[in-house]
């Protein structure tokens, strides 16, 4: 672990599984309560100097981006081994991690002058102190950068705790950045439950930023409430895609497919259900099923693999449960519908048809390589069904007429509406969830300001 810029070892460790084999391949440090205190204290001690020099913070983030790129292959290998994604996808994640740091470094914390005559009134945005960043296992490095980069640029210091399923790449990131960030500015710890709750509850932490499940997010909010800590929660979604009747399927089928199946479907912002005009239902199902059957699934370390395994044993079990429930209820697997032979957490890319709302795999976030395709009779119905959920992260509308699609997309109750695409938010673009999909904003200026407290400076001149 990295605490106060130094290497910290633990007495206890826990196993990290390679999802391509299902077997433990490495041990990660299990942070003790005393070491957690040390990490938070190191961040608190570094805060007074770090908060004072914006130019130094900007330069440090740029240097950190360059160092990540220099260390890319080490990070890529660890990421594939612990998370399962193909090496090409892991390289993309490392690239986006560096891009996120550079994009954040280009932002400015504004100072707004409300009045400047016999009195000067300014609105300032000042750092909070120690930020606890708790990240998930699906894109651990991107999520880490989305949290610590704006927190650091705003003048805060950070304690980063990755998921216990994928701790190694984040721990390595902490090591890589030790000599480009001052000691204590970014501390990286790892451990099993209840380490995340202990970090969120720590009295020296002033803000908690968390990405994960709704259930855990509610616990994080409850843990932060007694101390009135500020929180940002990104809690996933059950993103709906709506195809309009004029969609050019030949042009859009590939994008449609990967909008749902990128990262083995393990992206909060991936499409989780697709509504299709009844007259084009079979055509769309067949096109998606053809692509599902053509995908090369395997160990992400091997050349030519397009989709790796599910990242964790619990998620593998959940996907199997949801698909089995749908098939038992009368759904048909147009492609896939089963686990693949051999070791590891491999599940065939699955297109489900002959099902409606009310089936668990439609109503819940499956977070895996499964797409239920549901027919609809008119657009009003499709919009109502897309919005009929507790989730509200993203949604998309697909049409040969982008403006027609945009008018429909504007009515989706979610943080981001896409037209003729569905995917990861670009660095620097605000990202947020409605309803149970989260609280607060990540990325962009709004995300940067979420790591600050607003303060009014009121100066009376003269007598």
Automatic annotation (TrEMBL):
Assigned keywords, A-Z: Oxidoreductase
Gene Ontology MF term list: oxidoreductase activity, acting on the aldehyde or oxo group of donors, NAD or NADP as acceptor
PROSITE patterns found in the cross-reference section: ALDEHYDE_DEHYDR_CYS, ALDEHYDE_DEHYDR_GLU
Coiled coil: none
Pfam families tied to this protein: Aldedh
Catalytic site: 234
Domain Aldehyde dehydrogenase per the UniProt entry, residue ranges: 12-456
Family indicated by similarity: Belongs to the aldehyde dehydrogenase family.
Protein name per the record: Aldehyde dehydrogenase family protein
Gene source species: Streptomyces guryensis
Phylogenetic lineage: Bacteria, Bacillati, Actinomycetota, Actinomycetes, Kitasatosporales
């Amino acid at each position: 672990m990295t605490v106060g810029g130094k290497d910290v070892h633990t007495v206890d460790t826990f196993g990290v599984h390679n999802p391509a084999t299902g077997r433990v391949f490495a041990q990660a440090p299990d942070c003790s309560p005393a070491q957690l205190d040390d990490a938070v204290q190191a961040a608190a001690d570094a805060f007074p100097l770090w908060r004072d020099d914006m130019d130094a913070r900007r330069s440090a983030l740029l240097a950190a981006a360059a160092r990540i790129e220099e260390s890319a292959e080490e990070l890529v290998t660890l990421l594939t081994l612990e998370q399962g994604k193909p090496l090409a996808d892991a390289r993309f994640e490392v690239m986006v991690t560096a891009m996120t740091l550079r994009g954040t470094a280009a932002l400015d914390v504004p100072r707004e002058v409300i009045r400047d005559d016999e009195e000067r009134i300014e609105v300032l945005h000042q750092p909070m102190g120690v930020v606890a960043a708790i990240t998930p296992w699906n894109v651990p490095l991107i999520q880490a950068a989305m949290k610590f980069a704006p927190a650091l640029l705003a003048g805060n210091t950070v304690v980063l705790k990755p998921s216990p399923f994928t701790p190694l790449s984040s721990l390595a990131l902490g090591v890589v950045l030790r000599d480009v960030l001052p000691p204590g500015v970014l501390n990286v710890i790892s451990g099993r439950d209840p380490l995340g709750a202990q970090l969120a509850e720590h009295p020296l932490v002033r803000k908690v930023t968390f990405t994960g499940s709704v259930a855990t997010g509610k616990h994080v909010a409850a843990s932060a409430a007694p101390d009135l800590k500020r929180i940002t929660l990104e809690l996933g979604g059950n993103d709906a895609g709506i195809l309009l009747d004029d969609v050019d399927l030949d042009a859009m089928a590939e994008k449609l497919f990967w909008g749902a199946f990128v990262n083995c479907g393990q992206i909060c912002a991936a499409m989780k259900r697709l509504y299709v005009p009844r007259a084009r239902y079979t055509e769309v199902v067949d096109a998606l099923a053809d692509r599902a059957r053509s995908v090369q699934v395997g160990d992400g370390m091997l050349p030519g693999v397009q989709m790796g395994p599910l990242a964790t044993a619990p998620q593998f079990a959940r996907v199997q449960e949801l698909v089995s429930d749908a098939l038992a209820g009368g759904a048909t697997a147009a492609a896939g519908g089963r686990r693949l032979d051999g070791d590891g957490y491999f599940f065939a890319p699955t297109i489900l048809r002959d099902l409606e709302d009310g089936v668990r795999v439609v109503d819940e976030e499956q977070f895996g390589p499964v797409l239920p395709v549901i027919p609809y009779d008119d657009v009003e119905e499709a919009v109502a069904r897309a919005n009929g959920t507790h989730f509200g992260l993203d949604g998309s509308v697909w049409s040969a007429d982008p403006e027609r699609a945009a008018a429909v997309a504007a009515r989706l109750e979610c943080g981001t509406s896409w037209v003729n695409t569905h995917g990861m938010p670009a660095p620097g673009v605000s990202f947020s969830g409605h309803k149970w999909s989260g609280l607060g904003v990540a990325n962009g200026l709004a995300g940067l300001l979420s790591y600050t407290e607003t303060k009014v400076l009121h100066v009376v001149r003269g007598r």
